[in-house]
Design a protein that fits this description.
- This is ANTAR domain-containing protein.
- Residues 1-51 form the ANTAR domain.
- InterPro entries: ANTAR, WH-like_DNA-bd_sf.
- There is one protein chain.
- Helix content is 74%, strand content 0%.
- The protein is mainly α.
- It has one domain (2-78).
- The longest helix has 20 residues, at 2-21.
- The protein is globular.
- 24% of the residues are buried.
Length: 80
Amino acid sequence: MTSELSTAVIDQARGMLMLVYEMDDESALQKLCWRAEQTNTTLRAVAEQLVIDFVALSAATMPPRSVFDKMFDTLHHRIL
């Protein structure tokens, strides 16, 4: 069950990256993996925080990409 949840949140995060950065599925996964490696954080934790942050940012309207860039670059600081 935990594995299914991990896969689901990673898939959500990949979809969000695909939307914002107009990239394909493989590139989105590579970007998530890169961020996890750069911040010494698990892929699941990075994906979970990305989903949380994305929902909070886009609650009313889609923000400019620069806002998303800053959120993505600093998401590891908000992982509990």
